[in-house]
């Protein structure tokens, strides 16, 4: 449980909604709760450009703040970044360009089957 008694599942739904609202591509959810104590879910999303990546991350923050949840952190700010990370307590959102996503391949690194949306 995190701020305002939002469950990890509720935070996840709000984060995915925020990504979908601004046309995030290939949104993938990994349930990592059994593999780490740091978070329950990891969300990976692709943006079409560095500017889009930044906008997606910013929209996640603004959407969650409007629901009363203050993110713990936001890394990679700025239009020049190809990877933005938003820490939402029990959910961590990674937004990347296609090139960064292919290079880092977080899905393979965690080797966890994605959740169905």
Automatic annotation (TrEMBL):
Predominant localisation class: cytoplasm
Tagged with keyword Cytoplasm: yes
GO biological process: cytosolic ribosome assembly; negative regulation of ribosome biogenesis; negative regulation of translation
Keyword Cytoplasm: yes
One Gene Ontology cellular component: cytoplasm
Single Gene Ontology MF annotation: ribosomal large subunit binding
HAMAP family attached to this UniProt entry: Iojap_RsfS (MF_01477)
Family label: Belongs to the Iojap/RsfS family.
Protein's name according to its UniProt entry: Ribosomal silencing factor RsfS
């Amino acid at each position: 449980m995190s701020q305002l008694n939002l469950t990890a599942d509720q935070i996840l739904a709000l984060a995915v909604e925020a990504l979908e609202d601004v046309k995030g591509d290939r949104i993938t959810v990994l349930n990592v709760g059994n593999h780490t104590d740091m978070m329950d879910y990891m969300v990976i999303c692709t943006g079409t450009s560095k500017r889009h990546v930044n906008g997606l991350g910013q929209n996640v923050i603004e959407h969650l703040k409007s629901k009363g949840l203050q993110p713990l952190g936001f890394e990679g700010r700025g239009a020049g970044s190809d990877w933005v990370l938003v820490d939402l307590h029990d959910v961590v959102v990674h937004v990347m360009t296609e090139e960064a996503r292919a290079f880092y391949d977080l899905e393979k690194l965690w080797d966890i089957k994605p959740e169905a949306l």
